[in-house]
Amino acid sequence: MDNGEEPKLFQRDFILTFFSHFTFASVFHILIPTLPIYLKRLGSTEIEIGLLIGIFAISSLGLRPLVGKALLKTMEKRFMIGGSVLYALTSIAYLFTPPFWPFFIVRVFQGIAFAFFHTASLTLIANISSESHRGQSLGYFSISMTISGALSPSIGFIINNFSFATLFLVCFGLSVCSMVISLQLKGKRPSPSEDHSIRRIFFLSREALPPSIINSFSLFIWGALTAFFPLYAINHGVSNPGLFFTTIALMLILGRVFGGRIMDLYDREKVILPCLICYIVSMSILSFSKTLPMFILVAVIFGMGQAFLMPVLVAYALTRDGTSAGPVMGTFTAVSDLGLFLGSVIMGIVIQTTGYSTMFLCLAILGFINLNYFYFFVRKRK
Questions:
Q1: Distances (CA, A) of 64 to 106, 136, 337, 364
Q2: pTM exceeding the 0.85 threshold for the entire prediction
């Protein structure tokens, strides 16, 4: 990107990474509405479900900064291949591991696989994108995860027509597809860069921390939803909770396809603010919602905020740091994973002691705290 020639938006590696990420993310999204039900049928409590769902994120969190640092010297495609192979192995392992501890260990390794693949794929896209189109490029790329989120939850019908064993075999096949596509990548060889250690804290990017914390708060909310909304919906007579996640995914697709350029045309801070408000409104409504139409309304509002928040925060973090993408992506994804883990674990305890409505209201309050953190501690003190 230093030769004066603007990189094309849709390069060969962009397209290959898009489809590799799509198949990889499909496994993630297939398991979102199904694992809580699977664990519940095996006799797990809400707290155990929260831990087993959330440990995926915490194991991923621990490795992401190290992966980001390693990407300064190692091609991204190697981590993508390694992550997809490990994802395939853990998908098969679900067939033989009952909860709690055997299942727990498999979730740890699947989190490690996700750290490898997701950090590397985001870094690759950031490295091959120009600064002037980085938000748009990241937004388009994240559609790969969004489309899988729209289609994959509905594969829950496999549970009813076949079995959970079939579900895990499908996950294995998709992971292998991701590996095969990743093998076709040319990759980008790391170039020697100056030492920016003064801006690093234990492999973390100091300048990327504020946007990472904002995303962590939003993923705290998302982590709680993925772990417990399926059970909440079933308790209120909704036979297919996947419709909620499919609606969110469709909103993400529409927002990023038709509004992708917004993230580069306007001040990124002005894009972040309304996104955070959407989280507050959607969780407030969900706290008293009990019917499918109300759940769909919540999904529409939530999806509007989520459509722009993650890509614009990644671009914001890269702009604030201004150095190599690897450590920035390692910081951003690691801190984000912390929110994903804490959301399922802490809200599992809240549900056990209070109830679902109180839990959703707590998520709305957390969204309000996130909004204030951004407005008063990030935007005002920049």
A1: 18, 24, 9, 28
A2: no
